[in-house]
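dumping this here so i dont lose it
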């Protein structure tokens, strides 16, 4: 029982289904208010997340860390279960770096075009697309 109390179950769900489900020693997320570190027996918590990297230190080894690119959403922690619900999420091992770099280049072109047209709505959408692409690149390169 004592060993069970040191384990946090982490799962990440998107509209497409379950992306991640493992036991962890620690979870680190990018909340709107800053970075949060979550371990077993954490107080219940709900926090909105920004586009960023989620890092999970697995229980099977202190050197075994998973990185997941999450595009916003929210985190709920309760009874040693940390659940992240996001519009989209991608594990480091599944990220296609060439595709992410192409998305970054497209977003940068969209930003430039939106600035020239003074289209604030398109500029905002393009900036979000750029943040998502950069996040995926950073997670893949594990920065």
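and the seq i came up w/
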């Amino acid at each position: 029982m004592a060993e069970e109390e040191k384990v946090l179950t982490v799962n990440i769900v998107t509209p497409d289904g379950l992306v991640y489900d493992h036991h962890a020693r620690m979870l680190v997320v990018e909340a709107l208010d800053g970075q949060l570190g979550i371990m077993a027996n954490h107080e219940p918590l709900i926090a909105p997340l920004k586009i960023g990297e989620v890092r999970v230190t697995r229980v099977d080894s202190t050197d075994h860390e998973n990185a997941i690119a999450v595009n916003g959403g929210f985190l709920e922690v309760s009874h040693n279960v940390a659940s992240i619900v996001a519009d989209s999420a991608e594990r480091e091992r599944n990220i296609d770096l060439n595709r992410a770099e192409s998305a970054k280049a497209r977003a940068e072109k969209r930003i430039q075009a939106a600035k020239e047209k003074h289209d604030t709505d398109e500029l905002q959408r393009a900036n979000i697309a750029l943040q998502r692409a950069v996040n995926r690149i950073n997670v893949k390169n594990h920065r």
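The chain has two domains: 4-92, 96-141.
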